[in-house]
Amino acid sequence: MSIDKTPDQREGEISLTDAVRRARLEVAERSNAVHDLRMAEQSKLEALRDVLKPVLHALPREADLFDHGLVPGDRPRFYVDMIAFVEMSRDRRSFRFLMDSPDGRKLLGESDDVQVMANAVTNYLGRRLVERERAIASALSFESLPEERKPLELEVQKDTITAMPVVTEIVRNERGSSFGSFLIGLALGIIGLYAYLNWDNVVVPHIKVLTEYLGAR
């Protein structure tokens, strides 16, 4: 490898300035190569997205589960939904369909044919739609509505309504009736006790007077 020398550089001397310049040129060349590779990856993923456009447009609008889109970066990825995506392999030749799961990242398919990969993504979307429908159905619980208690309706003909007697029901207070009975019993008990204690002085004379009165009649 030949090294460019500055006019002031003498034979056998090492120039730091030349070394820095060469390093910058090498980095620029590598950056250009990486950029070109990255753009090639993104172009292939864009081609896959274009093939899948009819399928993506057919997804239900209310199914926000399928948040798809192409995300650029060091490793461009085409996200099918929140957990599955397509990226290029390390050699940038084939598509790799991956899914993140609780057990780690799983490879769902790999192919260098864009149509084969589009079919794999379409089948995945179909299965995800079925899973979504089953989840919604299992979450719904149909509870029986409570029956309204309607008042008892008697079927009576109109011409018999005027002939029916009106009965007025008197509702008595059970507490008042019990209390009245208690007072009557208490009064009778007091009278009986008084008569027993004053039998000779009060009751007997009254009986004699009553007997004489009845005998005189």
Describe this structure in words.
- This protein folds into two domains: 16-137, no CATH class; 187-217.
- 51% of the residues lie in helices and 12% in strands.
- The protein has helices at 16-57, 114-139, 174-197, 199-216; strands at 69-71, 77-79, 84-88, 95-101, 104-111.
- The chain has a five-stranded antiparallel sheet, covered by helices on one side.
- α1 packs across α2 (114-139) and α3 (174-197) crosses α4.
- The longest helix is centred in the N-terminal third of the chain and has 42 residues, at 16-57.
- The relative contact order is 0.06.
- The mean pLDDT is 76.
Please sum up the structure shown.
The protein has four helices and five strands, in the order H-E-E-E-E-E-H-H-H.
Break the fold down into its secondary structure elements and pairings.
Blueprint: H1 16-57, E1 69-71, E2 77-79, E3 84-88, E4 95-101, E5 104-111, H2 114-139, H3 174-197, H4 199-216
Antiparallel strand pairs: 1-2, 2-3, 3-4, 4-5
Helix pairs in contact: 1-2, 3-4
